[in-house]
Amino acid sequence: MHFSTKLLHSGSEIDPHTGAASVPIYQVSTFGQKSLEEPGVYDYARSGNPTRQALEDIIAQLEGGVRGFAFASGMAATSTVLLLLSPGDHLIVSEDIYGGTYRVLTRVFSRLGITATFVDTSDLDNIKQAITPQTKALFLESPSNPLLKITDLAGAAALARQHNLLTIVDNTFMTPYLQRPLELGADIVIHSATKYLGGHSDVIAGLAVVKDPDLANELYFLQNSFGAVLGPQDSWLVMRGIKTLKVRLDQQQASAHKIAEWLVQQPEVKEVYYPGLPHHPGHQLAARQAQGFGAIVSFKMKSVEQARQVLNGVKLPVLAVSLGAVESIISYPVTMSHAAIPQARRQELGVTDDLIRLSVGLEEAEDLIADLSQAFRI
Ligand SMILES: *Cc1c(COP(=O)(O)O)cnc(C)c1O
């Protein structure tokens, strides 16, 4: 089946009890049991809820894994996955990772004796050199955030396997439509479903999918023990979003490409970061390992003042944190998504004060370009 068909026909789309063509919202905390001897499938809704289960089955299918898990947020998904580790364990992490992932690793898991080394994973040698006897996992984001560096996921996963490391990939920017890390050798995929999967700026949610049944059992134990599960209303919203994932991303990617090409031509712009541009250092690799280049375009203006002028001057994109929605979202990484990273470290990473990140929505590309154009020349 093609991906667009799979989005609508996962096997979980019809309620088995009533035939409802949209999975019902089971707003319930506990389930009556027939008798002590015959426990039902569901007992308590932290442990399992039919609405959440439908979403978990859908994401597992779309990512090609054995089991999916839905969490209260992307960070809840990430944190629960990180609980697979123990004191003394070490991780190697993509250096321009999502700011919240950096924060939880450096300020929460560090206190529990779990350490992380942040390297530019777009060069596999950097990963190789960071491996220690304590290393247990790689945590990768490709394209990275906000500079859209590409990591060779199959290469990294192969390296991880040689050293008995888990490979965890945050696939938020790509979604399973454009990139399926489990097929490239990763063990765990994480999503902030708040972004493209939900797609409408109306829900906070996280997902994880694993490939191995034993690992699935371990993660299920942690999901139920830690308890940061997604509620049924929010599970339903994410399922509704997923149905239109392909049509949204097709349109958003096409517009992102046009906007990136236009940005390159603008004298006020110093640098454009979009993997779909042939000059992007990860272009060939992205073309090989993903089915598209996504709809996030980052760019640096020639001055900090110009960057602030554009952020304040645009009329169509929402000036906001977040991405992956139907409406375009423009953000300023240094004070928004990456504020949790210390300034000196941001500077080293190239997340500078002149950098703007644009999540391209469903508006007509020409309208977005006209809007950017007026903001450039205020
Ligand atoms: C937003 C985001 C997260 C965190 O997800 P929340 O749903 O906000 O908790 C993690 N990774 C990436 C790449 C993100 O963009």
Q: What descriptive keywords fit this protein?
A:
binds pyridoxal-5'-phosphate, 12 strands, alpha/beta, 378 residues, Aspartate Aminotransferase, domain 2, Aspartate Aminotransferase, domain 1, 5-stranded mixed sheet
Characterization of the model:
- The protein has 378 residues and is α/β, with parallel strands linked by helices.
- The protein has two domains: 240 residues, Type I PLP-dependent aspartate aminotransferase-like (Major domain) (Aspartate Aminotransferase, domain 2, 3-Layer(aba) Sandwich); 132 residues, Alpha-Beta Complex (Aspartate Aminotransferase, domain 1).
- It is globular, with a radius of gyration of 21 Å.
- The site of pyridoxal-5'-phosphate has 16 residues, from helix 3 and helix 4.
- Pyridoxal-5'-phosphate (PLP) binds next to helix 3 and helix 4.
Could you write a compact summary of the structure shown?
This protein is α/β, with parallel strands linked by helices.
| Poorly predicted parts | none
What fraction of residues sit in β-strands?
15-25%
Number of helical segments?
Answer: 14
CATH superfamily of the largest domain: Type I PLP-dependent aspartate aminotransferase-like (Major domain)
The third-level CATH topology of the largest domain is Aspartate Aminotransferase, domain 2
Question: Largest beta sheet: what is the strand line-up?
Answer: 1-7-6-5-4-2-3
Which bin fits the share of residues in helices?
25-40%
Main pleated-sheet profile:
7 strands, mixed
CA radius of gyration is: 21 Å
Total strands:
12
State the domain count: 2
Amino- and carboxy-terminal Cα gap: 49 Å
Shape: globular
The multimeric state of the shown protein is single chain
CATH architecture of the largest domain, by name, is: 3-Layer(aba) Sandwich
* CATH top level label of the largest domain: Alpha Beta
Helices and strands, in order, run as HHEHEHEHEHEHEEHHHEHEHEEHEH
Helix/strand-derived class?
Answer: alpha/beta
